[in-house]
Backbone:
């Protein structure tokens, strides 16, 4: 069974001290957005934030992606990871990817993921996630 927490920690990194991300947002833990510099936090706090953030991303995916229930666990993970990283507003901007998903055109969905500003920012993460989307298997 896929461990979403472990995968997101690999993608986002775990940091106990607040930092500003590439967009200038205060971030701590595993990609958890903060309103300001929170200093240093405990592993327990990071775990709580991570669980909550994954749940929010999953619920947004379930609510917003028509074909969610037809996707296998690996493809669902890709979408949770993207939702986690982008937030729902930016994620929903992937209209061509979502259309391709709804049509079961996973190679097209993967190509649309890579044809984005997001992919240019996160580089290897986008390549990895697009590969998973295309094949339906964890790589």
Residues:
């Amino acid at each position: 069974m896929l461990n979403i927490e472990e995968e997101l920690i690999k993608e986002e990194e775990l940091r106990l001290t607040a930092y500003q991300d590439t967009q200038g947002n205060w971030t701590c833990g595993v990609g958890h957005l903060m309103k300001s510099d929170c200093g240093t936090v405990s592993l327990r706090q990071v775990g709580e934030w991570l669980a909550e953030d994954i749940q929010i991303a999953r619920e947004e995916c379930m609510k917003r992606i028509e074909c969610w229930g037809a996707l296998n666990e690996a493809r669902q993970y890709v979408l949770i990871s993207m939702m986690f990283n982008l937030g729902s507003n930016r994620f929903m901007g992937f209209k061509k990817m979502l259309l391709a998903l709804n049509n079961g055109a996973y190679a097209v969905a993967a190509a649309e993921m890579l044809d984005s500003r997001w992919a240019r920012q996160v580089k290897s993460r986008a390549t990895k996630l697009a590969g998973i989307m295309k094949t339906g298997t964890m790589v």
